[in-house]
Write a structure and sequence with these properties.
Elements: H1 4-26, H2 33-40, H3 44-51, H4 68-74, H5 78-86, H6 100-107, H7 112-121, H8 145-160, E1 173-177, E2 180-184, E3 191-192, E4 201-206, E5 209-215, E6 221-222, E7 231-235, E8 241-245, E9 250-251, H9 265-273, E10 278-281, E11 286-288, E12 298-302, E13 309-313, E14 319-320, E15 329-333, E16 336-337, E17 351-355, E18 361-362, E19 373-376, H10 378-394
Antiparallel strand pairs: 1-2, 2-3, 4-5, 5-6, 7-8, 8-9, 10-11, 10-19, 12-13, 13-14, 15-16, 15-17, 17-18
The structure holds 2-acetamido-2-deoxy-beta-D-glucopyranose.
The site of 2-acetamido-2-deoxy-beta-D-glucopyranose has 5 residues, from helix 3.
Length: 401
Amino acid sequence: MLRSTDRVTAAALLALLALGCVSAASAKPPSTDRLVAAIKAKNFSALSEALSVKGLDVNTPDSSRRLPLVEAARSRDVRAVSALLEQGALARVSDGTTTPLHLALLAQGAAAAPMARLLLAHGADPTAKDKSGATARSLVPAASAASKELSEMLKQWEARGAMAFEDAPGDWLREEREGAAYFWNPATGESRWSAPPSCAWQRVTVQGHPIKYVNSLTGQETTSLPAALAWARVTAADGSGLWLNWAARVTSAAAATQPPAELPAELAAELAARPNRRWYNTVTREFVYTDPAYATAWRELRDEATGAPYWFNVDSGASVWEVPAELAWAEVVEGGSGSSGAAAAGTTSGRYFHNTVSGEVAWTAPEHSAHAFVEVQGAEAEAAAAAATAATAAGGAELLL
Ligand SMILES: *[C@@H]1O[C@H](CO)[C@@H](O)[C@H](O)[C@H]1NC(C)=O
């Protein structure tokens, strides 16, 4: 039984809840009714107007439960599909009956391929099923001239996922406009408020160690560093600082002033704080820009409760309490053992490597072990930056400093 004071509190609480409902109702996000109507009418100026409404979420169904992107694909309107994706429409949606990619592939006209490419690039899944259980991929008509391009696209998707359709690192620039991020592509003249897929990669860390990379737009996940994030801050031969994408071998057009649009702020700050950081692998004779601590799939983590170390495999998801054999290499120098590690490059007589788990012995440092790497700085890094820059210029890629 409620005491009277409790009853008063309860009544006040109800009143507050009612108020909350009212304010929630008045703050209701704008509806997509006008947007869907413009798509249906194929009126692009009305569509642009509808899209410019502040606070509009293009992923909200209209009052007849129609999703804007599904309706744009149904109308075979590439321009509308593109405009919606640029406003952050999610390509991997379903309205419960079908998906935009199903509709794009069913279109079969000239709009099918460009529409499918846009959707795949933004994370549409060709293995998703419609209400009848048919995958989008199964809708590509068997060998015909028109389906060749579509089949080729599906092959690319199977090999690399949405990333296969990503713009090259450095293609997009990021600016602040009206307090929001704004992206533009100087080569194509495209601009958009929502990040393009190449600028939507995020690094996921656990206890400070990279575990995986997730694209917040396409939903793609990978444990190896995507090319979009493979940037390093380097010093050019003339002493100026620049951003180098070592995977794509391009330098950023935003050069000294701004970090590349692909980099999340935290990662950019981390890289900027440690310019010219590279390692030389004495076994493979290659320079790497990534920390050799992450040369294998194993990450050393600490058990939250006990503080005891354990090892987590980012590829298999396995966790083990014993150091994995891949990491168990100890350097043995004659007369005693020690981990002089990366300090000694090349071969020293009486120096060998012993695996404390497998018992294996090797005369040269195993290529993925920390012993194989030497951190390099200064002149060597500058020379490599110059070489990379020259390679960029020679390759005909745009070089803006
Ligand atoms: C398209 O939309 C614009 C703006 O809402 C409107 O003025 C125009 O009459 C529409 N055009 C057609 C053909 O309906």
